[in-house]
From TrEMBL:
Organism encoding this protein: Bacillus mesophilum
Record's protein name: Ferritin-like domain-containing protein
SUPFAM superfamilies on file: Ferritin-like
Record-linked Pfam families: Rubrerythrin
The organism's place on the tree of life at top rank: Bacteria
GO MF annotation list: metal ion binding; oxidoreductase activity
InterPro entries: Ferritin-like_SF, Rr_diiron-bd_dom
Domain Rubrerythrin diiron-binding: 108-158
Length: 160
């Protein structure tokens, strides 16, 4: 059994997984459900591709930056999974929606573009929902994604 524990950005389950309160399920609509599914697929794909990108990196510094970004993506995935489950009472089975580039530079360019597009997508979701908890989570994660884009741009331009 899990208990919801409040924190500044929403709730955590007693097992440490991010959660949202039962009451927001009343706000579920098809568009929100579809948007969260797309966000889950995007985070899942990023986790997969960033693992490959980390292996392609030649410097330990680049590897550590990519590893930290990947950890953030895992956290985002867990937040969205929790929101999705609390809204639908179903577990979503994510899909890899993008192929991963074969070279390090192509991977950085792809990651940078994807992070930038993701910021816009998450902010649109935030703007569309009236639920403050979901709005806060998507805004917070959009900020992380923007930070990731900056890191990928830095890695692209610094050269190895």
């Amino acid at each position: 059994m899990y208990y919801l524990i409040p924190y500044a950005g929403g709730f955590y389950q007693s097992d440490g997984a991010p959660s949202v309160p039962f009451s927001i399920r009343n706000n579920l609509n098809t568009t929100l459900k579809t948007d969260i599914e797309k966000a889950l697929d995007g985070e899942y794909s990023a986790i997969y591709c960033y693992e490959i990108l980390e292996k392609l990196a030649t410097s330990s510094y680049d590897k550590s930056v990519i590893r930290e970004i990947r950890k953030d993506e895992e956290s985002h995935y867990n937040v969205f999974s929790s929101i999705y489950f609390n809204l639908t009472k179903q577990h979503y089975q994510p899909k890899i929606t993008e192929s991963c580039p074969n070279t390090y530079h192509e991977g950085l360019v792809s990651a940078f573009k994807d992070e930038q597009n993701t910021v816009d997508f998450y902010l649109k979701i935030s703007d569309k929902t009236s639920d403050q908890i979901i709005k806060n989570q998507f805004n917070r994660i959009a900020k992380d994604e923007q930070n990731h884009a900056v890191w990928f741009l830095y890695l692209m331009n610094r050269g190895n």
